[in-house]
Amino acid sequence: MITVPADALVELGTAIFTSLGAAREKARFVAETIVEANLTGHDSHGVVAYLTYTERIKGGYIDVEAAPTVVEETATTALVDGRWSFGQLTAMKAMEVAVEKAERSHISAVAAYRCNHIGRVGYYTAWAAERGLVALMFVNVGHPVVTVYGGRGRVLGTNPLSIAIPTGGEPFLLDYATSVVAHGKVRQALLKGRRIPRGWIRDKDGGETDDPAALDAGGWLLPFGGHKGYCLQLVNELLGAALTGSRSGLDPEEEPPSTNGVFIIALDPDAFVGLEAFRERCEAILRGVKRCEAEAGMRVMIPGEPEWETRRRRMRGGVPLPEALWSRLVDLAGELGVDEDLYRPWMRET
Amino acid sequence: MITVPADALVELGTAIFTSLGAAREKARFVAETIVEANLTGHDSHGVVAYLTYTERIKGGYIDVEAAPTVVEETATTALVDGRWSFGQLTAMKAMEVAVEKAERSHISAVAAYRCNHIGRVGYYTAWAAERGLVALMFVNVGHPVVTVYGGRGRVLGTNPLSIAIPTGGEPFLLDYATSVVAHGKVRQALLKGRRIPRGWIRDKDGGETDDPAALDAGGWLLPFGGHKGYCLQLVNELLGAALTGSRSGLDPEEEPPSTNGVFIIALDPDAFVGLEAFRERCEAILRGVKRCEAEAGMRVMIPGEPEWETRRRRMRGGVPLPEALWSRLVDLAGELGVDEDLYRPWMRET
């Protein structure tokens, strides 16, 4: 592994995206959200995106000059046209508008369409929770790779759900795909040459398998938690795609290659028991949960806790990256004429 | 089994609750919501509640004269004090206020506290969806019977979640406990003398078991879907209890015996793509899902479909009840001096 400080990865990403035509401020924000995924341990949504996003910019799918725009609004709602900008800009714009409106009207809902891949969904909900709001984000993915409960074949996307809640410290953070695992986790097992647990995917014939290669060979992921997870997968499709006017996983495949439909609800605890009382009560409940006895070999954790722990560790010690990935990033930086000082210091194995 | 027409069960429940002091209109509404649970196949929330609610009324836990009241409100939010009336009245009041406010302001949130058991949660969300609104209901249960992911012992309640979405026909309806199964399903297996699948509960020592008696003998239910279901169990505790000021499953046990904390979000699709466009798009997506190939021995169903199917069948053919339950209901009706014509016609086995 190569270990690179988070701020160096942000600088590198900023340089890559500016060299592809993005304004510096935009490029930096997109790079920051991507590195934040690495920091919180979600490497599948991390700097590997510098490679995929570069391809999508070159292919004309991400428009580096576009700015997401509110096209309709009321005091409590807004519709955001992402205009195929970086998905991160669209999601952040939508969340900013949702937070503003919830601060004024106690609750709000914002929908976004023509939206590219937004990366780690928890970035946006946690941002709102750090500002004292509860945020829910229902996202559909326009490309099918997950079956439905009782079904066969690829029907819908991994349709992630995130809910962040302000507590005394770092936010409570639910942030996951409604499939058993995210697509990226299967790809990472493949890269590392590992088998996967049976129950994650089916092969192209519907058979059980522990071979991660079977997914990209025509297999499919399963929804998590049987019919209960399947219900949430569909909620995200109905709110994320149908309510926003975004592409469904069931629509014919077409360009661009990776789209998200985004539906956000933000709400202000002050309208109920009050923010401070709410924070204290949440803390008391979560402390009570943490105090309960653990099963042998297990540890009771609060949603978000693994992320915030990994973040503290990686902020101090840097972000570990597979050598092969780092070398592809260095090659890309070289091709794009990025200043060598932004990657040369980290070119040794650690 | 004894088969009784739904309207006869409503009449019987109305008579039982009025004989206990409830006004006729209230008694009838509570009975209707309870029979609706039987009609949709959720017998654990059905007329067995005539027995438990009678005990709670006699014990002073349900106040048949109380009326739930909005104690704070804004254009988009409200806080409802249930005043320990029938939980059904509190939940319905909260949903009615949520729908009114969402119709005016596009989105709303309503919290309810001092709320008794509300019965089947999907009743209220489906009611809103039938009026063209999306409704989400996060409910905590004040009595612990479910452990947390990685934990041991009873920590939180079954914390049900319901999300209803208007479509072309009967609403899309997610409506479930965040435990693997509801408490009532284990009790029903016990009554029928059946074993349960391993993975539903643990016994009092934390061991795996297929014995339904192990639950009430100090065992506990597991959250559904591993850590992903656990996250939702906690969301319902934070929104249902902390945000509403209701009792948490972690609080010391005290009276009354069965409480719910209720948090509702209602939203109007008209503020986004428009209600008709939304309905059509939802229908198209759900039709697409139904068309997909099924696994051997399985059938792809839409959330709510089993409920609406059972409802149509039982509206025609009546509600089947175990003979032992029916005989306890008849005894109760006798004790309370309910008109014999309301139960005598159904006193034969079918």
Detailed description of the structure:
Chain A is an alpha+beta fold and 350 residues long. Chain A has 11 helices and 11 strands. The model of chain A has no long low-confidence stretch (mean pLDDT 95).
List keywords for this structure.
homodimer; seven-stranded mixed beta sheet; 11 helices; 350 residues; globular; Hypothetical Oxidoreductase Yiak, Chain: A, domain 1; Ribosomal Protein S8, Chain: A, domain 1; 41% helix; 2 domains; 15% strand; alpha+beta; 11 strands
Beta-strand content of chain A: 15-25%
The coarse silhouette of chain A is globular
Structural domain count of chain A = 2
End-to-end separation of chain A in angstroms reads 6 Å
Count of helix runs of chain A: 11
Short précis:
Chain A is of the alpha+beta class.
Topology:
The structure is a homodimer of 350-residue chains.
Chain A: E1 2-4, H1 6-19, H2 24-39, H3 48-58, E2 69-73, E3 77-81, H4 87-105, E4 107-113, H5 122-130, E5 134-141, E6 161-165, E7 172-176, H6 183-191, E8 201-202, H7 213-216, E9 220-221, H8 226-242, E10 260-267, H9 275-291, H10 305-317, E11 319-321, H11 323-335
Parallel strand pairs in A: 3-4
Antiparallel strand pairs in A: 1-11, 2-3, 4-10, 5-6, 5-10, 6-7, 8-9
Helix pairs in contact in A: 1-2
